[in-house]
Amino acid sequence: MFAFQRLFIKVLQNILGVVKVSRPRSWRAYLWMGVLGYIDGVRNLFFDLLFVYALISYLATAFAVNNLFDLKSDSLNKSKNNPLVSGCCKKIHVYAVLVNQIAALLLLFLLKREVFLVYLALCLLSIVYSTPPLRLKGRPLLDVFSHTFFFGALLYLYGFLYVESTLLSDCWYKIALIMLYSAFLQLRNLRDDVKYDMAAGDRTSFVVFPRASNIVLNSLRVGIPFLCSFLFLDLANYMLVAVLLTAAVSAVIGYRWGWERFVDSFTVISLSLHSLYFVLVTV
C-alpha cells in the first residue's frame, strides 16, 4: 500500500513538473492567436480535440525549450520564475514535453495532413529561436522577426487552415495585426530583460539597437490600437457599440495597469469581437 502511495506521489510530482516547465500562464496571448484563427475558419465555437491538443503541445514545447536554453539569463532574473533555475523541475520534464510534441506531430501527420506543414514550421521555428547554434533569440532583428511568425502569423494560420483550406480576404488584415502585436509583445519582453540578456551574452535587438527598438516599441503602442479600430468598419450597425465597449473596457484596464495593458486589451477585444460577430451572423 505504501509503495503504491509513493509511486502515485512520484507520478503526480512529475506531472506537476511537466506543467510547471511548460509555463501555461505565459501562453495566454499565443493560445488566443491560434484559437482566433480556428474560430475565423470554422465560424462557430465548437473545438476539435486534436486541434486543442496539438496547440497546447506546441506552446508547452516552445516555453519548455526556452526555459532549458535560457538558464543563464533566467538565473540572473528571478522575476522569470524559470522552474529549472529554482530546482522544482528537471531536464527530464522538458524531455517529456518533447516526447508529447512528437506525438502531436505524428497525429497531425496521420489525421490532419493538410495543416501538418504549418504546424511543423511552428515547431521548428520556436525551437531554433531558443536552441544553439542558430539561437535566433541572440540575433538582432531576427529575434523579433521570427517571433512574429512562430508566435504570430503561423499560429493564426494553423488555427484557420485546420478547418478551412482557403484564407478569406479579411483574414490578411488580421494576420498583419497579429504580427504587429507579436512584435510588440516581443519587444516589450526584450526591453524588460535587456540587462539580463546582455549579461548572458545574448545580442538581442534591444541590446544591439536600444534606441531604434524603443522607437519601434513606442510606435506600436500607439499604432496597434489605431489600426485595430478599422476592424469595426466591417461590423455595420454594431460598429458604434463595439467601439465604445472596447474603448471603455480597455480604458479601465489601461488606467489600472498602464498604457501597454490598454494595448493588450484593445487588441484582444477588437480582434475577438470581429471574429465573434461573424460567428453570430453565420448561425
Please outline what is shown here.
The protein is built from 14 helices and no strands.
Q: What does it look like?
A:
The protein is mainly α and 283 residues long. The chain has one domain (7-282): Farnesyl Diphosphate Synthase. Helices cover 78% and strands 0% of the residues. The protein has 14 helices and no strands. It has helices at 2-22, 28-42, 49-69, 71-76, 83-86, 91-111, 116-130, 142-163, 171-192, 194-200, 205-208, 210-228, 239-257, 259-282. Helix 1 (2-22) crosses helix 6 (91-111) and helix 3 runs antiparallel to helix 6. The model has no long low-confidence stretch (mean pLDDT 91).
Cα shape: globular
The termini sit apart by 55 Å
Count of discrete structural domains: 1
Order of helices and strands: HHHHHHHHHHHHHH
Structural class: mainly alpha
Integer-rounded radius of gyration: 20 Å
| Total number of helices | 14
- By CATH reckoning, the class would read Mainly Alpha
Mean pLDDT across the residues is: 91
The share of residues in helices is: over 70%
Oligomeric state of this protein = single chain
Strand content: under 5%
* Biggest β-sheet description: none
CATH architecture: Orthogonal Bundle
Low-confidence stretches: none
DSSP summary, beta strand count: 0
| CATH third-level topology | Farnesyl Diphosphate Synthase
